[in-house]
TrEMBL record:
The EC number(s) this enzyme carries: 4.2.2.-
Protein family membership: Belongs to the RlpA family.
InterPro entries: RlpA, RlpA-like_DPBB, RlpA-like_sf, RplA
Organism: Aquirufa salirivi
Domain called RlpA-like protein double-psi beta-barrel: residue spans: 29-117
A Pfam family of this chain: DPBB_1
Tagged with keyword Cell wall biogenesis/degradation: yes
Protein name according to UniProt: Probable endolytic peptidoglycan transglycosylase RlpA
Role summary: Lytic transglycosylase with a strong preference for naked glycan strands that lack stem peptides.
Keyword Methyltransferase attached: no
Gene: rlpA
Keywords from the UniProt entry: Cell wall biogenesis/degradation, Lyase
Length: 166
């Protein structure tokens, strides 16, 4: 490739990177829903298992492991969640939070609530907040390793018909 083509490709990739970072750094407003407890134990996009007691979330664009401050705009209650899944797949929803985060935000009764999302930057996550969030998650995991709620399968009844002899 010529030098001009390489420079053009580098310039385009550089601009795309700046555009994506600029969009992700913005505060977002929309509607949030939550994952139910019955989904515990299923694999998420990141590969870890969903635990309804952990404070996690699903978002379409934020990178895995990003910490978000989710605020219920009606009540003003805040919760801190970590992105570990992709979704929600309904276009009207902005984020899916875990059951524990939904309880903290007051979403469980209504099912959907208006929220304000702010990604936490490195300056926000220094020392105390990050150590608190990691300690909270490790304590929850010790107390509640992912709990799987499985519906019991019905056993098939064996037929008692006798075969007819010819």
């Amino acid at each position: 490739m010529t030098l001009q083509i390489k420079r053009f490709i580098f310039f385009v990739l550089f601009l795309m990177g700046m555009f994506v970072q600029g969009n992700l750094a913005q505060n977002l407003q929309g509607k949030a829903s939550y994952y139910h407890k019955n989904l515990s134990g299923r694999k998420t996009y990141s590969g870890e298992r969903y635990n309804s007691y952990l404070f996690t979330a699903a978002h379409r664009k934020y990178p895995m492991g990003t910490w978000l401050e989710v605020t219920n705009t009606k009540s003003g209650i805040k919760s801190y969640v970590r992105v570990n899944d992709r979704g929600p797949y309904q276009r009207r929803l902005l984020i899916d939070v875990s059951f524990s985060a939904a309880k903290e935000l007051g979403i469980v009764g209504a099912g959907i609530a208006p929220v304000h999302i702010r990604p936490l930057e490195d300056a926000d996550l220094r020392d105390t907040l990050l150590s608190f969030l990691l300690q909270r998650d490790s304590l929850i995991l010790r107390e509640h390793p992912y709990t799987v709620y499985v519906k019991k399968a019905k056993k098939k009844k064996k037929s008692k018909r006798k075969k007819k002899k010819k």
